[in-house]
Amino acid sequence: MSAAAPITAVNRRGLRPAVPEDAEACAAILNDWIDSRDWMPRVHTPDEVLTFYRDFVFENRDVWVIGDPVVGFMALDRNANCVTALHVATPGKGLGRQLLNHAKAGRDVLELWTFVANERAREFYRREGFREVRQTPGDNEEGLPDVLLRWERP
Description:
Distance between the termini: 30 Å
Number of strands: 7
Number of helices: 5
Strand content: 25-35%
Strand order of the largest sheet: 1-2-3-4-5-7-6
Shape: globular
Structural class: alpha+beta
Radius of gyration: 15 Å
Mean pLDDT: 92
Low-confidence stretches: 1-12
């Protein structure tokens, strides 16, 4: 986990660095997302997802959450300008944009992967200035075609 961010306008709106106790809420949001997509295979049990978030993501990524209780989260690779996870419990309320704008701050480039089948996410990222860089036929554990997207500061 990175050091706590200074109090800023974005923090006052509910965005804050995650603490270990947030892992359960983040895993629950992801598990709900997986279970609500008929095209998304469940390759890990909900408990395995929680263990992965608690023991790997929260230990090796910069995780930001929004809301109290947590209603959205984002994980950033510490060694690259890459969003490794961004999920909100209820899309369409501006929470994903708030998280993404936080990730863009201070960066000239930001990348992320999403699944080709996730049309809603792909449209969201296009609106937020990302462009599709390349696709794979399913080089991931889900075996689903995915797409790399990149944002560059204008």
